[in-house]
């Protein structure tokens, strides 16, 4: 079918009659539904795609397109339910099962995603991606032995699956007798890996040596891995600095909303920010014991919201910083976008919840817009000894462009300074809405710190739930194993064993407080 001519979205509903359900094929309805979706006529697109499935329930692409339509609208439960009839039919295509599982996992339905991976593996047990994703899900769910078994199977099928090595070593804290150590060493000794897989193996071996207290070997492996990553992913210091200066140039009064936006309803977002590896995951986990607090994990939803409003474009503000002369965000667009954000944040949240956490640490860039769009939302910054943050960042293979600064010590130092400068600025802007908690205090006195924060939020600390319910949550960050362990103090002062070796190569670390 030819693509319909370009025209205003408002006329699409009239044009839909050109494809009446009873007189068209499923393929035609599917193609028309996709065209309507691209044009922004979501209601008509939904009708056409459902008509396609009514004509041919086996048309998988129409089902997938309908699910993406609901997802893009923030209707996550509807998106997941699109696959109910298909899953109940017991499909025998392992590849399609894997695709559906990935989407279900992204929609927050980890249970059914896991079931799809299980069926895919039962149909074809040589699918390394399915074994890997199954292992990743088990790791996020805290089922570490099952995660290790699944990830090991993925590597047996595909030794070049570098990310599987990284996740495999995150399933435990190593002792010298661990049978995984010779397996990892054997894989590394093969020497025929791609540069990406080599980097992953370096990070995996670095983690093992760090667990064992082999400081020199650990640092050597981590430096080798970071050297490869630094060559593959470039950190743009100039862009980062420009972004910071643009934000600093905006007067604090600019971020104060003239009138509260309509639709400020419970549950309210509760933003937990800080540097990556500063302890935001641990703090969110401790808060998850309270029935009036729900956790949504770490997502890019806020950044996407701000980009859609034009207030943030690739991290750069796009408006005149002069409050008196700058146009405000259009109220209608703001309300709609904020509503979609709230829907995504609160999906699956039980009645009685007052706050839902958004713990993407990089939201520290957006504290000004948060203040404007969510005038009732509390913001909590987790601060950790920057020396420990530096080591934790350097030892973690993030493989994400926005965290490319973590692949080189000088770049980490630069980013730490950017963070401190911005947080000082935001504290002046946000005042009492922005509260700080020290990671070191948190691990020494977790109950005291959490109770104080709950009081700040107006919640009764005595209403906490037990740890069994807490540990059923999905943790989708690099801290999946660590955050599920009892709160311990081993991570405080982590920099000390590495100080002497690092100072030899980076004497500028003295400015951060490093000493041999």
Model description:
The chain is mostly helical. Helices cover 53% and strands 5% of the residues. It is built from 25 helices and five strands. A five-stranded parallel sheet has the order 2-3-1-4-5, sandwiched between helices. The protein is globular and about 75 Å long. 40% of the residues are buried. The model is unreliable at 1-17, 312-327, 466-472 and 474-481 (pLDDT under 50).
Strand order of the largest sheet: 2-3-1-4-5
Number of helices: 25
* Share of residues in helices: 40-55%
Structural class: mainly alpha
> How many runs of DSSP E, i.e. beta strands?
5
What is the element string, with H for helices and E for strands? HHHHHHHHHHHHHHHEHEHHEHEHHEHHHH
Distance linking N and C termini: 71 Å
Rg calc: 25 Å
Mean pLDDT: 84
Are there runs of 5+ residues with pLDDT below 50, and where? 1-17, 312-327, 466-472, 474-481
Basic shape: globular
Sheet with most strands: 5 strands, parallel
Strand content: under 5%
